[in-house]
Amino acid sequence: MANISLGTYSCNIQNCLYCIQNNACGQCAPGFTVYFSNPTVCVPNYSAIPNCVLTPIFTTLCFQCASGYVLVGFEACVPLPSTPVTCNISGCNYCLTNNTCAACLTGYSSSNNTCTPICNISGCYQCSSSFTCQICAFGLYLNNNQCLNASNQSSTYCANTFGANCTGCSFYQCTQCTSGQSLNPNTGGCCPSPVYNFANCSQYTTEWGNGCQVTVTCGVCATGAMPLQMSI
Questions:
Q1: Is 69 within 8 Å of 54 (Cβ atoms)?
Q2: Which ranges in 137-186 belong to alpha helices (H)?
Q3: Quick one: what percent of the chain has pLDDT higher than 70?
Q4: Given 30, 42, 94, 179, which residue has the most CB atoms within 10 angstroms?
């Protein structure tokens, strides 16, 4: 079938139904397919897949099904349902039966009747779409849709985020304080170091509260002495 035109496109291609550009076939007649590397030629379709109308030459995969059929996994052409079906599956392209996904949208992978966004972002643990990270992997933090190393932040970041007494930090908390300051693990900030000067005490325990509140307890006393607790 030659000399067919669609709109203003000329279509002088044997066995072509319509063109999408001048002499570039969009769909060939039944039994023929657009040549994989040359859209000006319709070649016989050797696909063994029923109702497949587009199979690149030298392959067994189907790229396009006949009208009324949908492509599943590039390997089958399945009839469209004759009645509407429910398809409340996030990321699903279409269902053939109620809430049973036949094919996911581009950028999603299929598993156990769910469509999961494929993460194309380095270090991302969970994506909300193919190009949007929701949760980064352990040890990384999310910043402008990038997963960055959370450890060893700059001294400027440490001082601005956790106070001037913080000299080393991760993205989440201070890890090193100036002399005379100690890290409060409950707040991630620096506080004045507790005083360990109980008489007759050989071993201390320290319990940090909110802010810079700290309770120092003598855990092991010298022989003949009683334990003593002090809150600061």
A1: no
A2: 155-162
A3: 87
A4: 42
pLDDT of residue 6: 45
Single pTM value for the model: 0.41
Residue pair 5/17 in contact (Cβ under 8 Å)? The answer is no
163/210 Cα distance (integer angstroms): 16
Burial of 98 (0-12, 13-18, 19+ CB in 10 A): exposed
Distance CA 150, CA 158 (A): 12
Q: Which of 214, 217, 152, 216 is nearest to 184 (CA)?
A: 214
Give dist(CA 87, CA 96) in Å, integer: 9
| pLDDT tens-digit series, residues 201-226 | 888 888 888 888 888 888 788 776 55
CA–CA separation, 3 and 5 (whole Å): 7
Q: Which two tokens stand for residue 130?
A: 């193919």
Rounded to whole angstroms, the Cα distance separating 225 from 232 reads 22
